[in-house]
Amino acid sequence: MGTTTLFKPTKIQRQALSLLKGGTKHILLFGGSRSGKTTVLVMALIYRALRFAGSRHLICRLRAKDARSSVLRETLLPWLTNTIGNQNYTYLVHENMITLFNGSEIWIGGLGDREQADKILGHEYNTIYFNEISQLSYAAVTTAYSRLAMRVPGCRNLFLYDCNPGSPLHWAYKIFIRKKTFLTGEPLEKPELYASMILNPEDNKEHLPEDYISDILDALPEKQRARFRDGAWVKAEGVIYEKFDETMILKPGELPETFDRLSAGQDFGLNITNVKIGRLGEIIYVIADYGAYNMTTQSFNDELTARGWFGLGPDGLGFPVYCDPAGGERIQEITGGIKANNSVESGIDYINAKIERGQFFVSAKCTGVLSEIWDYCRDEAGEIVKVNDHFMDALRYAVFSDVQQGVVVL
Ligand SMILES: Nc1ncnc2c1ncn2[C@@H]1O[C@H](COP(=O)(O)OP(=O)(O)O)[C@@H](O)[C@H]1O
Ligand SMILES: [Mg+2]
Question: At 55, phi and psi to the nearest 5?
């Protein structure tokens, strides 16, 4: 082998590595930016690939191009070169895959890209590392779960995760920090399989530019500083539904039993979602939601049907399901499907007005809506961040199309 540099973990990275050696199956490293999360997880994955010849490992995040730039080029390839040397691995660019001299493979890809989803989910792995999970839907991550099925003697298969913290309503917070089952809110059946650790930039000072914390992180606006310097799970900066608060989340028994009107919103895509609402007087109740990943429209509609989704509205008729107008032919595959109004800004303004007047409530059962509502935000330029917004779109179609159709007056 050529010249090699040993990986010297920081103190906190050593603790993370010992956590990995314990008996847990799901390990989340969260915290501020540039705290060494990705580096230590990539190193762990490299160790595993070296130790178990012929094993297979996956690194995925939302976008393949981000996986390639931030994980592959900045971390994985440099550390492979450092530790085993260039001559001992091959990067097959078109395959998004690296083979090591011992026959092990490391795959890299984006769960948000359709061509990639089928390809990366077409294999079995010994490690699946979800990078920056604040951007990933629960449905996407759990769909990938079944692929952790490769068998290599002696190798205990693992799920690894990392992220800058999202909101305290994000699915990862609920599972890893509150130790609750995401969909039901019940305590986790086997909490011992889930572990998390916080790593902050302060812990990685030795590898950061002198002024990174003092000049860059300290100078961030409050909420960003809490997330990116201190690793706190707080509402994002620039949250669109800023005034939504926990008092607007209702337990199932607290919702009315009948409504003046029902409607639903349907979003299409790799993450396919439906949100159902009821109106009673001026008040909007978000009563149910359902989302899936990499499912055909037909199967999704069958699943909704099986869940008794399309019961009749108060007038004895089926209710409208307002669909993403870009859905084309898919709209006809949805029971009651019609084109939604997609005036994004007016829809958001309408929902915000409802929230401010205390006329907007969400059932605690609506885990998809809740998981996104405090992370749905604008960037510095005021543009909506199009990440983790699948339920937010469906919600807006459900709420605002009725208004636009004149069924409900403003
Ligand atoms: N043990 C280490 N040895 C050398 N450099 C490290 C080590 N851990 C982290 N770094 C460097 O610190 C910076 C931030 O690490 P990274 O893993 O990308 O942080 P995060 O994923 O938490 O944002 C990167 O430049 C990385 O190369
Ligand atoms: Mg990282």
Answer: -85, 165
Reported as a single tens digit per residue, the pLDDT across 328-358 is 999 999 999 999 989 999 999 999 999 999 9
Taking the C-alpha atoms of residue 247 and residue 209, their distance in angstroms, rounded to an integer, is 43
Residue 66: partners with Cβ closer than 8 Å, 6 or more residues away? 110, 132
Which residue from 76, 83, 130, 204 has its CB within 8 A of the most atoms of ligand 1, so it is best to mutate? 204
For residue 42, report the distance from its CA to the centre of ligand 2, in Å. 10
Sheet holding 26-30, edge to edge: 89-92, 97-100, 105-110, 56-61, 127-130, 158-163, 26-30, 194-198
* Structure confidence at residue 394 (pLDDT): 98
User: Under a CB-based contact definition with an 8 Å cutoff, are residues 395 and 290 in contact?
Assistant: no
Is the pLDDT reported for residue 370 higher than 60? yes
For 251-289, the DSSP string reads -GGGS-S--SEEEEEEE-SSEEEEEEEEEETTEEEEEEE
Phi/psi of residue 107, nearest 5 degrees: -100, 150
**Domain residue limits, the chain:** 11-228, 246-404
Report whether residue 164 contacts ligand 1, using a CB cutoff of 6 Å.
no
Domain 246-404: give its CATH architecture.
Answer: 2-Layer Sandwich (3.30)
| 271-280, strands of its sheet edge to edge | 249-250, 360-363, 283-293, 271-280, 261-267, 321-323, 337-339
Nearest listed ligand to the Cα of residue 75:
1
- Residues 27-52 as b/e (b if ≥16 CB within 10 A, e otherwise) read bbbbbbbbbbbbbbbbbbbbebbbeb
CA–centroid distance, 9 to ligand 1, in Å, is 9
Specify the range with the lowest mean pLDDT, choosing from 1-5, 117-121, 185-189.
Answer: 1-5
Instruction: State residue 285 phi and psi, 5-degree precision.
Output: -115, 125
Ligand 2 mean position to 20 CA, how many Å? 17
Q: Domain 11-228: what homologous superfamily?
A: P-loop containing nucleotide triphosphate hydrolases (3.40.50.300)
